[in-house]
C-alpha cells in the first residue's frame, strides 16, 4: 500500500481562524483526510506523527525570537510550505505595532514589562524563510484552501484567481458601491470573499490583502473625490493586512 503524503498544520501568532476554516470544510475535509495523513494538527488532534512532512500549512505571524527560530525548524522538515491567512502572509492585525515603538505598548499593557520577550515587529512568514505559496484572507476561503492542498498533492499550480474583488462583484451582480458614493477597497483587494461587503452596500475592507497589481494612488485619489481624507485612508489600510507592501506604502504616503 502506497504511503499517504503527510500534512502538517502549524500555528504562530494568530487567532486560529484560518485553521478553523480547514476544520469547517466538513465533507471536503473528509476527502482530504482520506488522501493524506494528517500528521500534525493540534487544533484537530493531540496525536503527532514525526516529520518530515510533504506539505505544511502555516498560520500566524512571527512576533517573538522563539517563533523566529521555530519557523526555521518547520521549513527544514517540510517539502512544501504554504502560508495561510493575513497573519502569515502580511503580519496580521498585530503588525500595527510596526508603525510605532512596541516598548510603549508593552509598558502600557503589562505590569511587569521586563518579562515580555518579543520582537519589535510582526512580520509575514516569507520574511524569515522561503515559502512555496501564499493563500490570502482573514480568514481564508475554505474552497481555495482545499484547492491549494489538492494542487500540491497533484504536483500542479493552484488555480486560485488573482483578480480583484471587483470581478466578484460583477459575477454576483452587485451595483458598484463607489459609483454610489461609498469608498471601497475592492479595486485593489484580492478576490476570495465573494464580494460579501459590497453585496450589502458596504465598501470592501481589504480582508484578502492587495491583489497582484494594485494601483493604490489611483484608488486613494478616487476616495478623496468622495470626501475621504488622509486619516480615513490610513485607518482603512491599517487593518488585517496593514504591513502588506502596497497597503503599507500607500498608508505611509498619507502620514501627517
Which SSEs are present, and which pair or pack?
Layout: E1 6-11, H1 17-23, H2 27-35, E2 37-40, E3 53-59, H3 65-76, E4 78-84, H4 86-90, H5 102-109, E5 133-135, H6 142-154, H7 165-172, H8 196-199, H9 216-225, H10 230-237, H11 245-252
Parallel strand pairs: 1-2, 1-3, 3-4, 4-5
Helix pairs in contact: 10-11
Pfam family, one: Oxidored_q6
Protein name: NADH:ubiquinone oxidoreductase-like 20kDa subunit domain-containing protein
Keywords: 3Fe-4S, Cell membrane, Iron, Iron-sulfur, Membrane, Metal-binding, Oxidoreductase
Question: Would you kindly provide a written description of the structure presented here, covering whatever features stand out?
Answer:
With 256 residues, the chain is an alpha/beta fold. The protein has 2 domains: 6-154, 3-Layer(aba) Sandwich (Rossmann fold); 165-252, no CATH class. The protein has helices at 17-23, 27-35, 65-76, 86-90, 102-109, 142-154, 165-172, 196-199, 216-225, 230-237, 245-252; strands at residues 6-11, 37-40, 53-59, 78-84, 133-135. The protein has a 5-stranded parallel sheet with strand order 2-1-3-4-5, sandwiched between helices. Strand 3 (53-59), helix 3 (65-76) and strand 4 (78-84) form a beta-alpha-beta unit. Helix 10 runs antiparallel to helix 11 (245-252). The chain is globular. It starts with 5 loop residues before the first strand and ends with a helix.
Amino acid at each position: 500500500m502506497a504511503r499517504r503524503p503527510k500534512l502538517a498544520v502549524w500555528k504562530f501568532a494568530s487567532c486560529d481562524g484560518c485553521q478553523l476554516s480547514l476544520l469547517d470544510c466538513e465533507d471536503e475535509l473528509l476527502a482530504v483526510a482520506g488522501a493524506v495523513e494528517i500528521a500534525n494538527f493540534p487544533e484537530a488532534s493531540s496525536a503527532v506523527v514525526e516529520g518530515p512532512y510533504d506539505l505544511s500549512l502555516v498560520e500566524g505571524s512571527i512576533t517573538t525570537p522563539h517563533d523566529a527560530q521555530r519557523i526555521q525548524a518547520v521549513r527544514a522538515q517540510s517539502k512544501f510550505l504554504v502560508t495561510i491567512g493575513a497573519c502569515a502572509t502580511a503580519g496580521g492585525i498585530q503588525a500595527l505595532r510596526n508603525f510605532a515603538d512596541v516598548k510603549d505598548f508593552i509598558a502600557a499593557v503589562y505590569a511587569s514589562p521586563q518579562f515580555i520577550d518579543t520582537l519589535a515587529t510582526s512580520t509575514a512568514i516569507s520574511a524569515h524563510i522561503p515559502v512555496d505559496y501564499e493563500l490570502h484572507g482573514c480568514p481564508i476561503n475554505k474552497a481555495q484552501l482545499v484547492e491549494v492542498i489538492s494542487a500540491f498533492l497533484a504536483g500542479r499550480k493552484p488555480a486560485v484567481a488573482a483578480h480583484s474583488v471587483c470581478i466578484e462583484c460583477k459575477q454576483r451582480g452587485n451595483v458598484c458601491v463607489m459609483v454610489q458614493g461609498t469608498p471601497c477597497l475592492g479595486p485593489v483587494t484580492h478576490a476570495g470573499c465573494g464580494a460579501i461587503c459590497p453585496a450589502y452596500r458596504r465598501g470592501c475592507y481589504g480582508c484578502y490583502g492587495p491583489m497582484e497589481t494594485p494601483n493604490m494612488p489611483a484608488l486613494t485619489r478616487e476616495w478623496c473625490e468622495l470626501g475621504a481624507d488622509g486619516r480615513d485612508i490610513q485607518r482603512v489600510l491599517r487593518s488585517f493586512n496593514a504591513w502588506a507592501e502596497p497597503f503599507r506604502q500607500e498608508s505611509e504616503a498619507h502620514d501627517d
